[in-house]
Inverse folding.
């Protein structure tokens, strides 16, 4: 069996990956918990595995890459779940649905950067429309999003679970969220979008909404829908739902799955909403990492992975 090391397996993403890998023909190599921060111990485990998955803060992920680099030809392949390498051209971007040849790039890459949760949704909505010429790259874009608190790290999780957090809050109000660089690059945008993220008092689940003035674009919502539907028609993880008006949409419907739903919802005054719904811990994090890992190892997706 292929051997995999999860560096940082005690975090939310690492735990989700470990749970998913337990159902697969993969040997998860563990480190002595007392030595999990010992560089020499981590490097020794890296040398013994085929792939190391980095579930670490950005600086720690860069340090882990340096440990792997020092191994030379004995280094494992790397799958990084942090933000550190997502726009690095030396790393394959781990969104297999980005293009027809993206799965092959991931499969043969020595280093793969797992996407951010918000970025996964925004890129899924925008990239096919930009590539098809329906959305000019310089179009002013606003992205409004809400996520469950599990995506905010240990401090936020503890605050919510101990009753010390608000029911809802906006954050990153300086409009420079860390997912913006990958959204700009892989969606094919020429200008940074206005990105307004928020967090609600629910553990997981996510909605990303992008309003468009389709009348000014000269493109009806149905054509936007058809373009997205054609792009994802062969995907077993991304479903494009009918272009119907909506009054409400709640974020938790796909919790516990590795799937994502996309919609183009016609609205008043010649507007439309591009909408993505996903589990921020599924297709937005751990589920995406396992999808990439299976491509890297040449293993098929087992039944139930995308439940």
């Amino acid at each position: 069996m292929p051997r995999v090391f999860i560096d940082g397996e005690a975090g939310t993403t690492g735990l989700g990956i470990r749970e998913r890998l337990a159902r697969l023909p993969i040997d998860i190599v563990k480190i002595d918990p007392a030595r999990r921060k010992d560089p020499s111990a981590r490097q020794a485990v890296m040398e013994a595995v085929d792939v190391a998955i980095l579930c670490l803060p950005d600086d720690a992920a860069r340090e882990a890459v340096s440990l792997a680099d020092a191994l030379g030809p004995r280094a494992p392949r790397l799958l990084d779940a942090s933000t550190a390498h997502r726009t690095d051209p030396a790393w394959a971007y781990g969104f297999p649905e980005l293009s027809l040849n993206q799965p092959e790039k991931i499969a043969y890459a020595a280093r793969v950067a797992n996407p951010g949760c918000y970025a996964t949704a925004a890129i899924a909505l925008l990239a096919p429309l930009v590539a098809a010429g329906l959305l000019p790259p310089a179009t002013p874009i606003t992205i409004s999003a809400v996520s469950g608190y599990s995506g905010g790290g240990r401090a936020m999780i503890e605050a919510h679970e101990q009753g010390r957090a608000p029911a809802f809050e906006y954050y990153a109000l300086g409009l420079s969220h860390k997912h913006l660089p990958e959204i700009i690059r892989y969606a094919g945008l020429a200008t940074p979008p206005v990105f307004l993220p928020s967090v609600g008092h629910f553990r997981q689940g996510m909605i990303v909404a992008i309003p468009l003035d389709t009348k000014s674009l000269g493109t009806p919502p149905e054509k936007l829908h058809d373009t997205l539907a054609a792009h994802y028609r062969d995907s077993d993880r991304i479903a494009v739902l009918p272009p119907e008006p909506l009054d409400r949409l709640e974020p938790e419907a796909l919790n516990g799955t590795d799937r994502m739903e996309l919609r183009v919802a016609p609205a008043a005054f010649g507007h439309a909403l591009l909408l993505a719904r996903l589990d921020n811990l599924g297709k937005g994090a751990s589920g995406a990492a396992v999808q990439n890992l299976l491509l890297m190892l040449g293993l098929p997706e087992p039944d139930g992975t995308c439940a």
Observations:
- DSSP finds ten helices and 13 strands in the chain.
- The longest helix spans residues 282-297.
